[in-house]
TrEMBL record:
Tagged with keyword Cytoplasm: no
InterPro entries for the chain: EmrE
Protein name from the UniProt record: Multidrug resistance efflux transporter family protein
Domain of life: Bacteria
Transmembrane segments: 39-56, 68-89, 95-116, 136-153, 159-178, 199-223, 229-249, 261-284, 290-309
C-alpha cells in the first residue's frame, strides 16, 4: 500500500509535464528544447543530493566500469521515453497525449517476459522467464478502458493516420521504453545503489542523447525563449526530480514482485485525473463530461482492485514465511 500511495503522489508531479508541455506548445516552443532542457536542469539538483549523501564517488566508479549498459538502458528509459512524449505534445492535442500515455499501465505488464527470475527446481537453481500476471493485466485493462472513456468527449472528429503517426505512435513507444529502461536498470543495480544514485546515473548516462537533441533544436529552431527555459525548469524540478525519484523509489520497494510492480505502474493512470482538473483550473479547459466521470470512476475502481490484490498477495507471502519459520 505504501508503494502505491507514493506512486499516486508521483503522478501528481508528473501531471505538471503534460500541462506545461501543452502551454509551451501553444506558445510555439521547440519540443527538442522542452525535452533536453528538462534533463539538463535535473543534473545539478541530483548531483547536489547524491554528493551530500556521500554516494557520488561510488556511482561514478560504477558508470566508468559499465558505461555501455548504463548508456543503453538510460537512453531507452529516459531518452526514448521523454523525447517522443514531447514530440507528440508539440504535434497533437494535449488530451490525446495524456490519454495515450496511460497505455504505460499495459506496456509495463507486456515487458515482463523480457525478464527472468531464479527458481529452485529438481534440476537445481535455474533462470525462468517471468510470466505476465493475469489478474494485474485484467485490473490494468479495466483502468485503461476508463481512460478511453475520458477521451471520448474530445475525439468527436475522429483520429486520422497523420494524427496516429504524430500524436499516438510516439507516445506508445514512450510507454514501452519507460518501464523497460527502469526495470533493466533496477535489475543491473540490484541493491547496490539507492534511488537518488540510480536516477542521477541514468540522467548522466542519457546526457549524450540530450546533447544531440539540443543540437538539432538549436540548428532548426534557434535558442529557446526565456519563457520556455523557465517552464522547462519547473518541469525539470517537479516531474524530472520529485516525480521521478518518488516513482523510482516506489518501484524499488516492490522490484522483486511483478504483480506489485504492475500495481505501482498503474498508479500513473491517476495522472489524467490531475491533468484534467489542472487544465480546467490553469488553462480554462471545459469541465469533464458524463463519459469522463464514468471513466474516472473506473480508474479509481481499478486502482482499488490493484491495491487489494497486492495487499492480499503480500499477506499470503508473510503467512507462508511465518509458517516455514515455525
Amino acid at each position: 500500500m505504501k508503494a502505491i500511495l507514493i506512486g499516486i503522489i508521483s503522478s501528481l508531479f508528473f501531471a505538471v509535464t503534460f500541462i506545461l508541455n501543452r502551454s509551451m506548445e501553444l506558445s510555439g516552443g521547440s519540443w527538442m528544447w522542452s525535452s533536453s532542457l528538462r534533463y539538463f536542469f535535473m543534473l545539478p539538483f541530483l548531483i547536489g543530493i547524491v554528493l551530500l549523501r556521500g554516494n557520488l564517488k561510488q556511482l561514478l566508479y560504477e558508470l566508468k566500469m559499465n558505461p555501455l549498459k548504463w548508456i543503453l538502458w538510460s537512453t531507452v528509459g529516459f531518452g526514448l521515453f521523454y523525447a517522443p512524449l514531447t514530440f507528440a505534445a508539440a504535434s497533437g492535442p494535449g488530451w490525446l497525449v495524456a490519454g495515450t500515455w496511460q497505455f504505460v499501465i499495459i506496456a509495463g505488464l507486456l515487458v515482463v517476459p523480457f525478464f527472468y527470475k531464479t527458481v529452485e527446481t529438481e534440476y537445481g537453481v535455474q533462470k525462468v522467464r517471468e510470466q505476465i500476471p493475469v489478474k494485474g493485466f485484467l485490473f490494468s485493462s479495466f483502468i485503461f478502458i476508463g481512460i478511453v472513456l475520458i477521451q471520448l468527449q474530445e475525439a468527436n472528429g475522429g483520429i486520422g493516420m497523420k494524427m496516429f503517426l504524430i500524436g499516438i505512435l510516439p507516445v506508445v513507444v514512450a510507454a514501452f521504453a519507460y518501464p523497460l529502461g527502469n526495470r533493466k536498470m533496477m535489475e543491473h543495480c540490484k541493491n547496490d545503489f539507492d534511488t537518488f544514485q540510480r536516477v542521477l546515473g541514468m540522467t548522466l548516462a542519457s546526457t549524450p542523447f540530450w546533447f544531440i537533441i539540443a543540437g538539432f533544436g538549436a540548428a532548426t529552431a534557434g535558442l529557446p525563449s526565456k519563457d520556455q527555459v523557465f517552464q522547462s525548469f519547473i518541469v525539470g524540478i517537479s516531474s524530472g526530480v520529485i516525480a521521478t525519484v518518488l516513482f523510482f523509489f516506489a518501484t524499488e520497494l516492490v522490484k522483486h514482485d511483478q504483480s506489485m510492480l504492475a500495481a505501482v505502474e498503474a498508479t500513473q493512470s491517476t495522472q489524467i485525473i490531475f491533468v484534467i482538473f489542472g487544465e480546467v483550473l490553469l488553462l480554462s479547459a471545459p469541465l469533464p463530461s458524463m463519459y469522463s466521470f464514468v471513466g474516472l470512476l473506473m480508474i479509481a475502481s481499478g486502482m482499488v482492485l490493484h491495491s487489494l490484490f497486492s495487499n492480499r498477495k503480500t499477506s499470503i507471502k508473510v503467512n507462508e514465511l511465518e509458517t516455514k519459520s515455525l
